Amino acid sequence: MEFDPTIFTVGGVSIIALVFGLVEFFKSLFNMDGKMVTVLSACTGAVLFGLYQLQTVLPDPYAAIYIGVMGSLAFGLSASGFYKFVSARTEKS
């Protein structure tokens, strides 16, 4: 059996993309670097994957709320994280 990270999505958003965006957001917000970013990344991934696993056992109204909250976080924070990531690596005009 091969690991396929594309199957881990919440509301159509990959958890890996969400972790990436959140880490970039928190990294810039709290001015973090080095090993702290590695720890933040590992913890964020573990928490989000745990919540992903929880999604399958939540009763129907709570599962829908969970998916809505995770989707909102994904789009808001990932967009912010991706913006910071690209902004820091592109030439200023």
What can you see in these coordinates?
With 93 residues, this protein is mainly α. It has one domain. The protein is built from three helices and two strands, in the order ββααα. The chain has a two-stranded antiparallel sheet. A hairpin with a 2-residue loop joins strand 1 and strand 2. Helix 1 packs across helix 3. The longest helix has 30 residues. The N and C termini lie far apart (48 Å). The mean pLDDT is 81.
Primary descriptors:
71% helix; 3 helices; 93 residues; mainly alpha; two-stranded antiparallel ribbon
Concise structural overview:
The chain is mainly alpha-helical and 93 residues long. The chain has three helices and two strands; from the N terminus they run E-E-H-H-H. The chain has one domain.
List the helices and strands and how they pair.
Layout: E1 9-10, E2 13-14, H1 15-29, H2 35-55, H3 60-89
Antiparallel strand pairs: 1-2
Helix pairs in contact: 1-2, 1-3
Total beta strand runs: 2
Physical arrangement of strands within the biggest beta sheet: 1-2
Tally of helical runs: 3
- How far apart, in Å, are the first and last alpha carbons? 48 Å
The biggest sheet, with number of strands, parallel, antiparallel or mixed sense and barrel status, is:
2 strands, antiparallel
Name the poorly predicted regions: none
Overall outline: globular
String of helices and strands: EEHHH
The mean pLDDT is 81
Structural class: mainly alpha
Strand content: under 5%
- Number of structural domains: 1
Residue share in helices? over 70%
Please compute the radius of gyration using only Cα atoms.
Answer: 15 Å
